[in-house]
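Q: For a teaching session next week I want to show students how multiple molecules come together into a single three-dimensional assembly. I've collected the sequence lines for a complex. Could you give me the predicted structure tokens for the whole thing so I can convert them for display?
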Amino acid sequence: MNNTFNLIRFLRLFKKQTAEQYKTYLMSVGVLIGILALLLGFISYSSGGNVSPTVQGAIFFNLLLFSGTIFTSLIFADLGNGKKSIPILTLPSSHLEKYMVAWLYSFVIFQVVFIACFYAMDYAVIAVGNMDQTHKSEVVNVFSMNFKIWIAFPMFAVLHSICFVGSIFFEKLHFIKTAFTFFTFLIFLCLINALMLGAIFPAKVLKGVPFNSVGLEINEKFCFIRPTNTSDVILLVMAGLLTLVLWTGTYFRLKEKQV
Amino acid sequence: MIELSNLSFGYSKKSLLFKNLNLSLDVGHIYGLLGKNGAGKSTLLKNIAGLVFPLEGKCKVNGFDAARRLPVFLQELFFIPEEVYMPSVTANEFIRQTAHFYPKFDQALFYKVLAEFDVSPDLILSKLSFGQQKKVMITFGLSTNTSLLIMDEPTNGLDIPSKVQFRKIVASSLTEDRCVIISTHQVRDLDSLIDTLVILHEKEIILHKSLDEIADRLHFSNAGQANKDAIIYTEQNGIGNNTISLSHPDQYCKVDMELLFNAIINDHQVIINSLK
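A: Of course. Below is the structure for the complete assembly, covering every listed component.
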């Protein structure tokens, strides 16, 4: 018997999770469709049927990150409840199988469902808005490299990994506690970055946002140094590595989970 | 089957619940785990089920380290906690989704026992009363036919007729290759059910004896029927005194577990010594 991963056992676990949670998931999809309809419909109505791709992209970007992080924060919530965690942890399947089901639902299935819901509502609202219009609105392509909306996907991966750890690390109030920890860390990073720049350069630091430009005052002259395009690649690679580290950390946290 | 060796556990290193605990449990027995509230009965069971990890020492079940929670270990273990959680599905759906994780699951037994408990398999489990949910979980646990069945306070929430039924059903489910551990603080619920008594007190297993061995050594009776020259514990009740005395050869009586438990908990080392 393979005690690490068995496809049949994994599929059975996936089926069990679906059968026991599908009502909650369907209700969540209903709420998502409602919010999308409300946001897109209100903007279309207030702007005379015209919804620009930029506005559609902004809604996609923000809603993906917001709803995705909430959903991910709750994916291991049952493990924080002693009564609910015992049947999960003693169910005869491996930690990797339990982890993969949670990951698949919160990362892959969530994004597929979100994109499907977004386009269904976006097409509907744009079609209604374009009726009797000479200047017709276009449906945004969120995968296009011309728009920067695709950044939502790697950004979601990073935030997903943070919320994934948070959902298993905290016992309750997973989303709030994860968000609080994340923003506290960001503030700490900004403060320490400015302090480090001050220690490195023999000049007054005017601006020192992490992974962004540096502003220095040298002999009463102001210098602002913008990073090259390579820094974006470095940032993406670092974000990818951070995501992998946090996903792996979540797996080990699950292995060590106690009731 | 279960080997605890030098097991120490505590929710913090400063206050240990158990220290250097050693215990060996075998198949073919129904063990009754007794202890006062807060003695650590549930925690000991969680250690055996791999739900908490020892700070020191080992806990092995069927040769597997419990803390690793491998599927091969879990498919031979069923744990019924004191407070059960049931999903929003019917018992029929529940066994359809969960039974196949247990290779020896007996579906016919499940429906038979569920009928004996008078619970319909078509009702949504989360909407059942606490007692009914417990009955479904006990039924499922028995039907898994796992070599280790752990029940933590299983009779809490059961009405009196169901407690009688519970004893009957559990007793009939014991086989040569199965080990059942039942923890409770309601000692009378284990009457005519368990064959071995394990008492956990002050971080230690202070008693681990079969009821036959206990009955061979000790005599439980009222003061009038006691072996007067060998009384080692007396407890007052409403109508007289209950006693524990040393048994004469060929004298056999039923073990009064409640009296024995009270005697041991009240620091009667003489009882422990007389059972050694």
